[in-house]
## 1
Amino acid sequence: MIEDKNQQRTPLSGFGEFGLIDHLTKNFKINQSSTIKGIGDDAAVLNFENKKIVITTDLLVEGVHFDLSYMPLKHLGYKAVVVNLSDVYAMNAKATQITVSIAVSNRFPVEALEDIYAGIETAAKIYDIDVIGGDTTSSTTGLLISITAIGEVEDEVYRNGAKPKDLLVVTGDLGAAFMGLQVLEREKEVYKVNPNSQPDLEPYTYIIERQLKPEARKDIIKLLKDLDVKPTSMIDISDGLSSEIIHLCKQSNVGCDLYEDKIPLDPQVISTCEEFNIDSTTVALNGGEDYELLFTISQSDFPKIQANPNFSVIGYMKEANEGMHLVTRADSKIPIKAQGWKNFND
Amino acid sequence: MIEDKNQQRTPLSGFGEFGLIDHLTKNFKINQSSTIKGIGDDAAVLNFENKKIVITTDLLVEGVHFDLSYMPLKHLGYKAVVVNLSDVYAMNAKATQITVSIAVSNRFPVEALEDIYAGIETAAKIYDIDVIGGDTTSSTTGLLISITAIGEVEDEVYRNGAKPKDLLVVTGDLGAAFMGLQVLEREKEVYKVNPNSQPDLEPYTYIIERQLKPEARKDIIKLLKDLDVKPTSMIDISDGLSSEIIHLCKQSNVGCDLYEDKIPLDPQVISTCEEFNIDSTTVALNGGEDYELLFTISQSDFPKIQANPNFSVIGYMKEANEGMHLVTRADSKIPIKAQGWKNFND
């Protein structure tokens, strides 16, 4: 929302495709021993010796997944990496490499791509992954980022291993990214009416950061290993808790009781929900973009995680024919329905 | 250019994201022993045991890389796979898996996506690869396909291994895809003026097929192995012969003499070039999209490939300080310059 009148604008047409990729990736370092050859040939070459690998890909589209009027480009680059790594961690794997493809219209100067790549580079450093390839091309409109993430895994965890009586556990807290988005959307509307208004975003710092610069739970994979806990099933929360619970239940052929009073909420989420007059449970269930991990463990593993503030036990798994329910604070049972983002709706 | 008034149009909004991916990929089979888990979890799981892997990614954008007014969607799906596999083969690797991400606007019905996936499925069958993941999302405009291809390799060939005195070899023939595009562009203009005109495309079948449904040279990788030839360097021809020669020379730190009279051209390319009054050598050098393999071999390997109609020796490598030149039919020497597609030009 803040316009910098002095920003430099170098047109993309000043670079050939190869010159541009070289320019954007020249600072990128290779740290993973599994990367034999990164950017610069027809393909990257990797050697995982006798480890299995995981691979996942995600597409972020301007106007659908992000709005550049409040998403700084550096944050966008960072977030694009993080949402992919989150899928790698959800397999109980270690993320090792990514490829990055960007389609961008000529309305963006080279400096815009530099900002996106700066965010990508920061994420690569923090999560210790190598950027090993990609493609940069023009688009007729808008900006689109496609990232593929690769990881190595010894003991992968699928969505389909949950058993009745397993405990349902979630990391961190939920609903913050969604409420951060509500605040940003509101400020955008205010800005349209009065471009000179100075928003006070201080009460929303945590939820806005969760929206603009989410983190993937690399730490949890290490923690689970240290605690000697192997989840029976796992998924990351990108579309919202209810949608992910349904995935785990359907693929594992189990049911679930989810306890409303156990869902972890940050105080900022609760106060902002009150301000916006939105039900915080609905936000936690359907908001999405939390990038927390949702997993099931055998009850015998409960003592290992019980005292750890990273984990909340929010429900337990039942027989499939018992269905999937939210047990409310008033002790009534409501069927869980997916209401995650439906990007194809008109 | 032919409109089917009776075609079925199911809106994309009729499916949730997950339902849509399930619907589009339900027929896809897993054939590769390295695929442990394909579509359906947070990530695919692969096991190459102790083989190295190669990975490459490409982005195809409507209005930049393809024009739907003459590119049938099935062909587009097929071509999107092939251009990625070509990069895998250019590493001397065996292609094994792909992920497919598609961004598409609501103006496309589900049947359009089904056509694209039908092309992808056909390519996957013919090249014996597994489709192991992907993402399908909406875009604000247009169609975009991002594919990542994975392969396994024992003895990879890079771009940087060419030595002075090595022979420069190309597979197949060059320039056909570019001339096919010229014919299609011309027909599009004719159609705009007179939608009832019936074009006679019979004289152009080969070059149009090379544009709309190119093939990657999987067969060459097997052939080279059978002939016991390991190229010293290799690249695939996507941007044009001159641009690829420059890549090999720069990365190998060598020079090159390319002989104009040795460049393989199909008779249809020659006759169409005459019709369009374009120089066929320029087309071969700068046309691109041939997806043939360009490689260098040690002179001692020459007898092994000499009699094989798949290969044309088109030049030989020199010391870097001797530069890169086209030796014309008139025996003059012209420096080789890259004039490949520059997608960022205004």
## 2
Amino acid sequence: MPNRTVFYVSDGTGITAETFGHSILAQFSAKPRHVRRPFIDSVDKAHKIVTEINAVAAAEGRRPIVFITLARLDVRSILTSDQCKGLVMDLFQAFVEPLEREFGLKSNHRVGRFSDVAKSQEYNDRIEAINFSLAHDDGQSSRNLEAADVILVGVSRSGKTPTSLYLAMQHGIKAANYPLIPEDFERGHLPSSLTPYKHKCFGLTIDAERLAHIRNERRPESKYASIENCRYEVKQAEMLMKRSGIHWLSSTHKSIEEIAATILRDVLSDPTS
Amino acid sequence: MPNRTVFYVSDGTGITAETFGHSILAQFSAKPRHVRRPFIDSVDKAHKIVTEINAVAAAEGRRPIVFITLARLDVRSILTSDQCKGLVMDLFQAFVEPLEREFGLKSNHRVGRFSDVAKSQEYNDRIEAINFSLAHDDGQSSRNLEAADVILVGVSRSGKTPTSLYLAMQHGIKAANYPLIPEDFERGHLPSSLTPYKHKCFGLTIDAERLAHIRNERRPESKYASIENCRYEVKQAEMLMKRSGIHWLSSTHKSIEEIAATILRDVLSDPTS
């Protein structure tokens, strides 16, 4: 799909439009050019965007795809009018009306989902979770582990840190993480500071070959990165996790989003919030 | 809206369904109960979810709202059939068909947007950006700053760290951050290690009262957290940022999502990717 441009137009950050657009376009193996246009919250700005969309349409000879999340009706109507030469995907309209009927309520046309939640409890919890996860990254602190919602364990570079930060940022979950090291393998059990919290431990493992590749980028030619050492550590860590009876999975072919969704399901016993 | 349950049902992580659902429900000031059901990728699992939805409908006497992102037609048809007593919001159907016509292509019904991208270049760039942002948090390292896409500056606790991590995680942007400290105010210019990179610096400021509140949670009764000191630091930092001619904004009433969207627009000169 060459020469196709996709616009994300929102009166807020545009995150919803973008998340949704990426998902839909993944159904087409499309690699279009993405143009993000957040904070379009006035009629003037809407007219400017339409001009930009029409210029792209003329230059490329194909309609741009335009995902919109616009709460204000006067702004929205400019994008959805015949003036606009894009193929407009109006995310709100398709779903707001059936919900208004279902709830027997009018929608409030509130602009920007993230805007008034900025200082909400939910938002503050997310920021606090990020700080917690940073302070408890890589076994830095065993203090206050009772406050953790989940404790990730695994060998160095198995994906613990990005997963912890993702859980905190996206879901407001306090995720500590703890490396499994040779001393743990010799003792044959989880670090003793984790023993009281075994029910909230979750293990990550990874293919030894993939691990060696990742570690070699950091410390080329080291024992740490050698395939023999990676095979040893991975095998020991998996034995230890099996013996401990904790949930665990391999991060080798999984994204942090998938690992996080699994942890939410298995450890944090959805339904949540 | 009491006693209303919202399901997010997906064959992948459910992030798209959830992001979208939260956005739509924000239009109704709704505070429903959220139930996340990821990885629903077989007919058996689909039938189980329908049973669960119907049990909730019977117990609550109201239809649950069900946001679905299901690529497989056999799985999807179970959720959208009359058997299912929820109000089903089918995110793909409404938009995939117009796009198939526009592109002259059939969609590939690929399950899980994050699944096969896990080891893609884009994914690896995001993980690398997270590692970069962690290594360059709070001025920890001035090495390799030329590789930064953006460098956030501001007084301690003005929101630099969560914003850096968000930019890395969500957008794959290498965001370093650097604290502004009394020595910088005395010298009256940005830290000298940043001088060559002024074009990619972005400043964060914050109301002194809000800053004092945040700092007091960390170090109660300290000079660091006192309102006088916070007023001094904020005033000096704002003067310094103005004098330097860098872009900056106040994080006081903004979420990290909004700050990130502004940085993408102002510093990283969208269109991106």
